[in-house]
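Sat 14:20. Reprocessing the chain from the morning session after the first attempt stalled halfway. Input below, unchanged.
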Amino acid sequence: MAIQLDSALGSDCPTSAIDPFSDDFLTDPYGYHEELREAGPVVWLDTYGIYAMARHAEVHAALTDWQTFCSGRGVGIEDFAKVKAWRPPSKLLEVDPPLHTRTRSVMSRILSPAAMRKLREDFQKRADALIDALLEKGRIDAVKDLAEVFPLHVFPEAVGLRAEGRENLLPFANMVFNSFGPRNALFENSVRNARPVVQWIYDQCHRHMLMPGGFGAQVWDAYDAGDIDEDEAHTLVRSMLTAGLDTTVNGLANTVYAFACHPDQWQTLRAEPSLARPAFDEVLRWEAPVQTFFRTTTRAVEVAGVTIPESAKVLLFLGAANRDRRRFENPEVFDIRRRPIGHVAFGTGIHTCVGQLVARLEADVILNAMISRVSAIEFTGEPTRKPNNTLRCLGTLPVELKAA
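Finished this time. Tokens:
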């Protein structure tokens, strides 16, 4: 795809006809990422009339400068100052201080390291049991049988969600993450039967629907204490049911995929189980579950010689930044001995993923269960992709787990 310079945008701003929401791009983005990175620090995308950044330095800087690159006008392509969102905006992801400071403080307290320690023993037992059952099967679809099953089993229970209707969780998350892109076929197909799914999700966020003691009930305790208002409490529970699930599903699927692609790295991990945590970070860098988020400029700002005007939408390529050779040596190589410090798979700055401790816990217990039980992970068929406007998703992942 040709990259050109457009004098109307400034002599140093390249323009591109790349469509980052096309099926080709979403299925195999890495060649496009390289083209965008090498085009320049800032690129104008003609298809949507938006600016884009794909290099690590610029993406990281924009994520940390919330005053200039705000989230409160939506982290998708639509500007909430101009267009009404199809759903109430997230009170974590799509707000800025001072509201963000209040809501994040509540969620950080609930999803704390101490809370994760209380969950670990139970999560580990469930992970051990799941891997034992999957080894009995041998050949599995690691998406349907592992990556979806485990988070859907443990996380809604930790939130305090009742068992009935949990099948609505993944379709709702799929809608939300598709909605951050344009209203293309992916978005339209995901919302085609949205009404009953959305209604079920919203119903579960009321305090009387949540089991005592769970994360959801603790959100309502914060309301009782006067830390947040009623609308914020309801929306924070909904945010947990969205961001706390689909990203973890894809993170776990990508983990199995990475080790199936690199059997030598699986043997390295089995020999050195202490590498489990950095291994998951390397998965996140190499195959980031969240590939993109938008920001909106609050003022005219110059980035690497390009002036981005006020109220411009800027697409930040997190997945491309994580494979920028300017930041990571041999970035296309999956290496669990790497120290991938600075990857932006969870974002960075004040909007860093507040649920990352949950994702890390789930990945850690699954890897711990597999390290001692699984001698090898082998493909039994060709994996398929499930395009999503924001997420890097596998549709199927046929593998065989070999018993140790």
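The mean pLDDT is 94.
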